[in-house]
Design goal:
This protein is an all-alpha fold. The protein has one domain: Tetratricopeptide repeat domain (Serine Threonine Protein Phosphatase 5, Tetratricopeptide repeat). It is about 60% helix and about 0% strand. It is built from eight helices and no strands. α2 runs antiparallel to α3, α4 runs antiparallel to α5 and α5 packs antiparallel against α6. The longest helix has 14 residues.
């Protein structure tokens, strides 16, 4: 095990060495090197490792950065049972946003901010999404959705098709 977790002061639990090395490569945009190390940390983690979801989320996010759209599935898997690790939701929000899944990115942002409302990465991503006008649409975008019907009438001029 390597460095103490920087998100928990006084923690006696350590992050995996491969994961810490992978973070250094990730921060330097060395996606291939980071991917190998994150995959190793993810696969070697015990089922009761409190950082298992973090390892999985970085593994998935790195895949997304490398152009593998399926990497978001790993990020989603990591977030399913996570209650405390805001980094997992940050990674999911970034992956969803990068792939153009704005509604899902918004949901991940809200869940992450519910854990840590002051997380700088989530706040920055929230501002970026808002600045570019990529607001989340309400669930149920089909014809039966009230808002969709109203917008449809506005844009069609109220006439029936």
């Amino acid at each position: 095990m390597a460095d103490l977790d920087p998100w928990k002061e006084g923690s006696r639990v350590s992050l995996d060495d491969d994961f810490v090395s992978g973070l250094k490569r990730f921060k330097n945009n060395d996606w291939e090197g980071a991917l190998d190390l994150f995959r190793s940390a993810d696969e070697a983690a015990d089922i009761d490792d409190i950082y298992q979801n973090r390892y999985t989320s970085y593994h998935g996010l790195t895949r997304v950065y490398m152009g593998d759209k399926n990497g978001v599935k790993l990020c989603r898997k990591a977030a399913v049972g996570e209650r405390n690790d805001v980094e997992v939701y940050y990674n999911l929000a970034v992956a969803e946003h990068k792939l153009g899944f704005h509604e899902s990115a918004g949901m991940a942002l809200r869940r992450g901010l519910g854990i840590d409302s002051g997380h700088p990465g989530l706040k920055q991503l929230q501002q970026e999404i808002t600045r570019h006008g990529k607001h989340s649409l309400p669930a149920g975008k089909g014809r039966e959705n009230f808002i969709s019907r109203v917008f449809g009438r506005l844009f069609r001029g109220g006439r029936k098709t």
